Amino acid sequence: MQTVESERIRALARGVRDDVVAYRRYLHAHPETSFHERETARFVFGELASFGLEPEHPTPTSVVARVKGASPGRCLAIRADMDALPITEETGLPFASQNPGAMHACGHDGHTAMLLGAAKVLSAMRADLPGEVRLLFQHAEELYPGGAQELCDAGVLDGVDMVIGTHLWLPLSSGRIGISAGPLTAAPDSFSIEIAGRGGHAAQPHLTLDPVPLAAQLILALQQLVSREVDPLRPAVLSVTQVHAGTADNVIPDRVALGGTVRTFDEDVRQLLERRIPEVAQGLCAAFGATCTCRYQRGYRPIRNDAAVTDGLARTLRAVLGEEVVEPAVPSMVGEDFSAYQERVPGCFFWLGSRNEAKGIVYPHHHARFTIDEDVLETGVAAFVAAALHLL
Ligand code: NI
Question: How far is CA 174 from CA 18, 77, 299, in A?
């Protein structure tokens, strides 16, 4: 790629910088949780229409638009998620959430703003563009079964050759890009176990079947699945995150309810834990005469970046943003429903660093004081525009 062209792409992104920051702040102030992104979708639809595009709502709270180039060619889809989280914001920012109990605490406001910025740039340069760029403004990334699967089922990938997306990423410093072929995010499964004993007077435990110590043993036994049964070179997380029992200090309860999450990259490790959690729970309960019911819910599939798409995108990003800002991506045990698109077409999802310690932007994703470094938004716009110009 020519240096001049790289400079041009960066200048185009810089040209919409103020718009993109304004989009982000508007969206940040008006967050809507998964499957409820009505005003967000309306806003995005209106902006896209103002660029001369013809957006559609494939589902009630999502928006898709096509930027058709002047010459025939391939089709690249770029995805941004738009949903917020049920968190009460504590950032104190002047554009903090005006919707009580909802907050853009994962950066999806930034994703939507960056893709709107790219849409503005690309819609003004259709004459230079071969093929088609399809802009996917997706609802409900945060809530299983997720918006990506619904959009796939609605046919938004029909005719698409490849798909890309990014996540503003606090583990990575501002402006840096993490990109690698292969696994990037885990399968985020969840489980629940209800142990049924027999309650009674806390002073007479011998007359009861106390489920509380059983639950305590079970929590430790489940940790042993990861430490003793999973290959130590294969990632797995098992976290018990909910324990509910009891109503009084002097009453042994009838039941204990446990809940938690399992994160894996590999299908065989996932199957092992899916099988062994109920086996261990039932065996342990049976040993003490109790019973239990177990439920295991599979979540999103892991993201696996396609080698060819990733290679092409990484080359483009190095050329446009600079060799020094692009590094191999460190995978994460978080879940991402971008994987649903990759079941249909080859794709690549990359991290866009947005941690800035000098500005105090250090709180993790899903924290009430989470925010992003707005200076990286134009980097994201440049990445999307560069991808459109060079992958097609
Ligand atoms: Ni997110």
Answer: 18, 25, 30
